[in-house]
Design a protein that fits this description.
The structure is a single chain. It is built from twelve helices and twelve strands. It is α/β, with parallel strands linked by helices. The strands form three sheets. A seven-stranded parallel β-sheet has the order 3-2-1-4-5-6-10, sandwiched between helices. A three-stranded mixed β-sheet has the order 7-9-11. A two-stranded parallel ribbon has the order 8-12. The structure holds nicotinamide-adenine-dinucleotide.
C-alpha cells in the first residue's frame, strides 16, 4: 500500500512507519514539519520518501499526496504543558492543518485516518469511555484535538470522504521525546537527577505500548467502517506515582529521588478507554505494561546517542522553565 504519513518523524508516527515497512512492505511518504518533537533520526535506516513541510502548507501536501492510497495523520502538537503555556501552534496544526489535509484527501478521493487521543473524552472516575461518550476535553491540547475529530467526521457526513478516527490511550516505548512522563523519568533516574511528580501522583493512565497502537491503526485503516471512530486502550492502567516507582526499580535508582511538584492546572485524574470495537476488527494488545516498560527502559539505556542531543538542547530550557524553580539540588 502507498501511504502518506503526516507527522511520521515523531514518536508514534515513526514507530508506525517502522511497523508498516517491516510487516506490510508499504511504500511510505512522510510529511513532517520537524518541530522540536519531530526528528529525522527517528526514521534513520528506513526506506521512506521525506517531505519537510507543515500539514497547513496546501502546496506541499498537494504534491506529497500524489499517488497515495491513504493518508494517516499523526501531525500534532502533543504536550499538554506546552498547550497551556503557548496554545497558538495547537490551533494552527490541529484545526487549520487538519482542514488542509482533509481537502487534499477529498480532492484525491483517498481514505483518511486521523490519529486522536483518549484525552478528547476528558477525565472519568470509574468505568471506561466508549466511542459514543460525549467529547469533554479539558486542555487546549485536547480541545483542539477534539475539534479536529469533529471536522474529520463532518467530511464523512458532508462530502462522503472515507474517514476513520483512532483514539489511543497513553502511549510509551522507544523514540518518545523526553518531556513525556516515562522517558523523562527514565532519563532522570539513569542520571541520578530528581524525578518531578505532579501533585500526589495519583493520576491514572491506561498504558499502551506504541507498537500495539501502530498495529491497531493499521487494522482500522484496513478494516474500519468509514465515518467511524475506534478507541484503542492499553491492557493495564497504573497511577503515575507507581509508574515512577517501577522505573526507579528498573533503573536501580532510589525512591528518595522523587520530588512532588505543583500539579498541572486542570490535570485530568483518570483516562480509560473501552476497546471492544477495535477488538471486533481483530486487534488485541500484545504487550503488558510490565514487559513494555522494561523494554522501554532497556531501549533508553542502550540508545544514549538518540537522547543525548535532546537533553543538551532546547529541551534543557523547557525543563528549567517547567520544573527548575521547584526541583532541589
Ligand atoms: N503520545 C501519546 O501518548 C498519544 C496517545 C494517543 C494519541 N496520540 C496522538 O498521536 C499523534 C502523534 O503523537 P506523538 O506522541 O507521536 O507526538 P510527537 O510530538 O512525538 O510527534 C508529532 C509529530 O508531528 C510533527 N508536526 C507537528 N506539527 C506539525 C505540522 N503542523 N505539520 C507537520 N508535522 C507536524 C512533529 O514534527 C512530530 O514529528 C498525535 O496526533 C497525538 O495527539 C498520542
Amino acid at each position: 500500500m502507498r501511504l502518506l504519513v503526516c507527522g511520521g518523524a515523531g514518536f508514534i508516527g515513526s514507530n508506525f512507519v517502522r511497523v508498516r515497512l517491516r510487516e506490510h512492505g508499504d511504500e511510505v511518504v512522510v510529511l513532517d514539519k520537524l518541530t522540536y518533537a519531530g526528528r529525522r533520526e527517528n526514521l534513520a535506516g528506513l526506506d521512506v520518501a521525506f517531505v519537510h513541510a507543515g500539514i497547513e502548507d496546501a502546496a506541499a501536501v498537494g504534491g506529497a499526496i500524489e499517488g497515495a492510497e491513504a493518508v494517516v495523520n499523526f501531525a500534532a502538537e502533543t504536550h499538554v504543558d506546552r498547550s497551556i503555556a503557548e496554545p497558538d501552534a495547537f490551533v494552527t496544526t490541529h484545526a487549520f492543518g487538519t482542514w488542509v489535509l482533509l481537502e487534499a484527501a477529498r480532492a484525491h478521493g483517498v481514505r483518511y485516518l486521523q490519529v486522536s487521543t483518549d484525552e478528547v473524552y476528558g477525565s472519568i472516575e470509574s468505568g471506561s469511555f466508549t466511542e459514543r461518550s460525549p467529547l469533554a476535553p479539558s486542555s487546549p491540547y485536547s480541545a483542539t484535538k477534539a475539534g479536529a475529530d469533529l471536522l474529520v467526521s463532518s467530511y464523512f457526513h458532508t462530502y462522503g470522504l472515507k474517514t476513520l478516527i483512532c483514539r489511543g490511550s497513553n502511549n510509551y516505548g522507544p523514540y518518545q521525546y523526553p518531556e513525556k512522563l516515562i522517558p523523562l523519568m527514565v532519563l532522570n533516574a539513569l542520571h541520578g537527577d530528581r524525578l518531578p511528580v505532579y501533585g500526589d501522583g495519583m493520576q491514572v493512565r491506561n498504558w499502551l505500548y506504541v507498537e500495539d497502537f501502530a498495529r491497531a491503526i493499521g487494522q482500522v485503516l484496513a478494516h474500519g467502517a468509514p465515518g467511524e471512530a475506534y478507541n484503542v486502550g492499553g491492557p493495564d492502567e497504573c497511577p503515575n506515582i507507581e509508574v515512577v516507582q517501577r522505573i526507579l526499580a528498573l533503573c536501580g535508582a532510589d525512591e528518595a529521588l522523587i520530588e512532588h511538584v505543583t500539579d498541572r492546572p486542570g490535570h485530568d485524574r483518570r483516562y480509560s478507554l473501552g476497546s471492544e470495537k477495535v477488538r471486533g476488527l481483530g486487534w488485541q494488545a500484545r504487550t503488558r505494561f510490565a514487559d513494555g516498560l522494561a523494554e522501554t527502559v532497556r531501549w533508553y539505556r542502550e540508545n544514549a546517542a538518540w537522547w543525548e542531543p535532546i537533553r543538551s538542547g532546547e529541551y534543557r530550557e523547557y525543563y528549567q522553565r517547567q520544573y527548575g524553580s521547584q526541583i532541589k539540588g
